[in-house]
Amino acid sequence: MFATPPSHIIEAMRWAKTSGGRTCTFSRTSGSLNARTDSQLVLAPIAAEMLAMDTVIRARLGSEVVLINQIAEYIISAGGKRLRPALLLLLAGAGGYRGQDHLTLAAVVEFIHTATLLHDDVVDESTLRRGRSTANALFGNAASVLVGDFLYSRAFQMMVEVDSMRVMKVLADATNVIAEGEVLQLLNVHDAEVDEERYLQVIRYKTAQLFEASSRLAAILCAQPLAIEEDWAEFGRRLGTAFQLIDDVLDYSGVTGEIGKNVGDDLREGKPTLPLIYLLKRGTPEQQTLIRCAITDSSNADLASIQTEISESGALEYTRDMAQSEAHAARAIAERLPDSPHKDSLLELCAFAIVRDH
User: Fold this and answer.
1) Domains and their CATH numbers in the chain
2) Distance from the CA of 106 to the CA of which of 3, 165, 299, 333 falls in 20 to 30 A?
3) DSSP code at position 140
4) Are 83 and 243 in contact (CB under 8 A)?
5) Rounded Cα distance, 227 and 5, in Å
6) Of the candidates 261, 32, 253, 245, the residue with the CA atom closest to the CA atom of residue 134
């Protein structure tokens, strides 16, 4: 006999089954979904294009300044899921795109994302990302910030080559909104008065915005009507929100070696993410005091006690449920696409978003 898996895993298994069953496999030995391995299967229809995008990335990383090459290569070679460019490639494929500009724009999206990571790690004083030391920990804050700026400017050089004002506007607007999200998050640090609305605004600006832009770019490349473009943009926004909410869960329930960063980093940085906000609103007076003190003075926070309170309070389940709701909404949009392997992968990506362990 095997223990019944949690409800969110059962739901994802149902999703995977109805969309082909190729992505999420249930392991009877672990009682969990093997999301890490199956993320590669999700991207199978664009495997060749992902390799081609990597070629573009490495070709365009070059600089006469040796330090730029070293840091850019270090951060890019760390890998990661590359979900934002993958989303662009999958939707372009689902829309029947036959050109080459999607590879350039996928690389642009990855450069912008990488630049934000370099800047994030400096602001957050992070030391670990994707299982390796952060660039700022190895090369220093100044070098990391400046190489992030180089990646931003290189991304804008590349987007000009596509010769589309619509493309440039989408990416310029997205980059501006992401910067606003970074500042909003900074304002929220050590603020125990942050509520769900304020936090979800940060997610929409800081994380979901580039998912949304990637999806919108695919619609533009495919010359989709505005109504379809807005649908695809919403798909990206919903999916990006789901991914970030699960990141919130993993920050308190994950394993450092699996999630690629230190568990509890958000709390150490004084960030009031959704599990903490849940306890501040719905916890006992003792829990509320514990969380309020931890947010305002994270240097003295008792991470073990807070993890226990979060785990036993229903905060993680609440956050997962919200992520699942966003992924459901994204899936409903993807279901309207014409049948294709790309559509299947987009449907499966909605399941992967809520069952991954890193």
Assistant:
1) 7-16+23-42 (no CATH), 43-350 (1.10.600.10)
2) 333
3) -
4) yes
5) 39
6) 261
